[in-house]
Design goal:
Layout: H1 5-12, H2 16-50, H3 55-70, H4 73-96, E1 105-106, E2 109-110, H5 125-158, H6 161-169, H7 174-203, H8 216-224, H9 240-269, H10 276-282
Antiparallel strand pairs: 1-2
Helix pairs in contact: 2-3, 2-5, 2-8, 3-5, 4-5, 5-7, 6-7, 7-9, 8-9, 9-10
């Protein structure tokens, strides 16, 4: 029987391709939720490295932040999977194929032994998906961690010097001043910059296709195509405008909701402090 109206649309929106679209939504949200705290960890570590009194560590921190900020995100997202794959397979080649005589590097070709391939052909689909998910999280955290390091470094410098001097006057050690006075106040000044980084992270999620992940944009492109095939169950014209319009609304709403969350966090963190965030929260 031919379906029409609401019945047709309800069946159309529950096809296998649409289920993949909904699944990709969960994947995108999961990557953002996982990459953000990891990027913050990378950023905090990078900030500490930049301020280290040990010269090699300081150079390493400055190199990380300057290089990652200077290289286009597109290049990083293409380079990270290749580098991680080659690193894992090279290590497995050394461990699993110690008797191999064929050189692993043959000109521009990288040829590890068959046992070193990772993930292997016998690994389940879930493992391949989890591996791709992990690569995506690492790539995003690596890129945005470099930006977060600079944000945190600037925020730490913005902590009033009088606060630091008062802590020293009370006999606190340099480590105690840093952990008990500087870092707690640092977050007040860092939140606006971290807020902007979060928005950039959200906007960068369409680059997931570079890592082989079928994201929202991929499925919007696929589902929006005109479908008048001979055996088409749900024939329809080109609907790209509707699918990408829905994505536009989703990203705008998602960003708006997260901005409300950041406003609440700013108000909570600045409570009891004479900062702009606290005064605005009480006005």
């Amino acid at each position: 029987l031919t379906k029409h109206g609401f019945e047709w649309m309800s069946c159309y929106l529950t096809t296998k391709k649409h289920m993949n679209l909904y699944y990709s939504l969960g994947t995108v949200l999961g990557i953002m939720a996982t990459a953000a705290p990891l990027a913050l960890l990378f950023g905090f570590t990078g900030m500490l490295a930049k301020r280290s009194g040990v010269l090699p560590v300081r150079f390493l921190g400055q190199g990380y932040t300057n290089m990652l900020r200077g290289i286009p995100d597109l290049v990083i997202f293409m380079f990270v999977p290749l580098a991680v794959d080659m690193g894992i397979e090279l290590l497995r080649h050394w461990l699993l194929c110690p008797q191999a005589t064929t050189p692993i590097f043959q000109g521009v070709n990288f040829t590890p032994c068959r046992a070193a391939k990772f993930p292997s052909a016998v690994d389940g689909e879930w493992f391949h998906d989890a591996y791709g998910f992990g690569l995506a999280v690492f790539a995003y955290a690596l890129v945005f961690g470099a930006f977060a390091a600079n944000v945190l470094d600037g925020a730490l410098r913005a902590v009033p010097a009088q606060q630091i001097e008062t802590g020293k006057a009370y006999g606190l050690s340099a480590r105690q001043v840093f952990s008990r006075i500087a870092v707690p106040q640092m977050w007040i000044y860092a939140l606006p910059g971290l807020n902007n980084l979060w928005v950039l992270l959200v906007k960068a999620t369409p680059l997931l296709f570079l890592l082989g992940i079928e994201d929202l944009v991929y499925w919007a492109q696929e589902l929006g195509k005109a479908d008048f095939k001979r055996r088409a169950v749900y024939p329809h014209p080109n609907w790209h405008v509707y699918y990408f319009g829905a994505l536009l609304v989703f990203y705008l709403l998602f960003t708006w909701v997260t901005q409300l969350g950041f406003a609440r966090i700013t108000k909570a963190v600045s409570r009891g402090m004479a900062t702009v965030g606290h005064r605005e929260g009480n006005s």
